[in-house]
């Protein structure tokens, strides 16, 4: 009997190896090689060459366009905006986030809302019916007659259910738990995730049923499984935030039907997730103005936010100063500290520096540079910034303050909350609300009070 050929596939990067080893030679990860049986390729390839039919093509000019199906509202206006107006029939959405962040809670709330007008199926491969029933009771979703539930890890069965064309929306929690009967590898492997996703996507496109897949993430924060999973789906949503408190943010990393510059903010309560109506006011509600406290006018997607930046500077007790940042990139913080020491003559080499972004937000905005620098200088010198001022601007290595995007949105949000001026790059000096600064040293000298 001819022995079946095997190969070893890395579950992190998908690289194929002829023999097993403890470490993948391509990505460097340990214990990620899984044995898989190689199907006979010669006969299949020879048959594929001889088969097939010429495609029926038509002119782009003469193509008929079908009416665009009406989107399904999720019940949260901000989430609808992130999705481009709601969930489109036939679309495949991938929602990924850290464990405990609230993915299942959010999707059960969405399912309950859509079930008022469409049939919805919630498929769980991780929880039993009784567990989901308890959550549904807490969220007020148990009384929906058009909301069905099934517990399954079979991608074949779920795809067959989708092809039955009974449901307008199918939620699968999660894609890493599914397995195809034709593949012998364990659930969560590269081959299982890729092929299970393909089967579900084909079923969704054939029946115009929308499918939402829940995805796990690795300890680095990227979506677990092959990168091809993100290419297969239509929309990729990233659920971020602190699972123990603070705001939670849903961002569109990829969206074939809308913008990727939008963000939805939620807050967790006992009865589920609620959209944050006025996040800027909520973030500044408990602010206690002091040295080291600066208000940043930032953007989350296209939404302007006012968030407090806090800095604490202490003399170091050891030979090597400590730098810690919560909600801000630590490498960028080290760069800004070096710029401050070089361009403003502040001596920070023997100081421990701690930065905190209030509300559990993670800043990816370059305009936060100036606010971070002014907060550090304020804490180091014991001088306060004007309580009625907001700050934004990018800081270059030469100490210059560079222009940023969305100035009008930032200024408008600051005016709504009662602020009187904005310290910003001098290129925006035409706006009378803005007090222009050309370099970091000028900003510190002119606006840090005693």
UniProtKB/TrEMBL annotation:
Keywords: ATP-binding, DNA damage, DNA repair, DNA-binding, Hydrolase, Metal-binding, Nucleotide-binding, Stress response, Zinc, Zinc-finger. GO terms for biological process: recombinational repair. Residues 352-450 are annotated as: Lon-protease-like. A motif (RadA KNRFG motif) lies at residues 254-258. One of its GO terms (molecular function) is ATP binding. SUPFAM superfamilies: P-loop containing nucleoside triphosphate hydrolases, Ribosomal protein S5 domain 2-like. ATP binds at residues 97-104. Gene3D superfamilies: 3.30.230.10, P-loop containing nucleotide triphosphate hydrolases. GO terms for cellular component: cytosol. InterPro entries: AAA+_ATPase, DNA_repair_RadA, P-loop_NTPase, RecA_ATP-bd, Ribosomal_Su5_D2-typ_SF, Ribsml_uS5_D2-typ_fold_subgr, Rubredoxin_2. DNA-dependent ATPase involved in processing of recombination intermediates, plays a role in repairing DNA breaks. Stimulates the branch migration of RecA-mediated strand transfer reactions, allowing the 3' invading strand to extend heteroduplex DNA faster. Binds ssDNA in the presence of ADP but not other nucleotides, has ATPase activity that is stimulated by ssDNA and various branched DNA structures, but inhibited by SSB. Does not have RecA's homology-searching function. The middle region has homology to RecA with ATPase motifs including the RadA KNRFG motif, while the C-terminus is homologous to Lon protease. Belongs to the RecA family. RadA subfamily. This is DNA repair protein RadA.
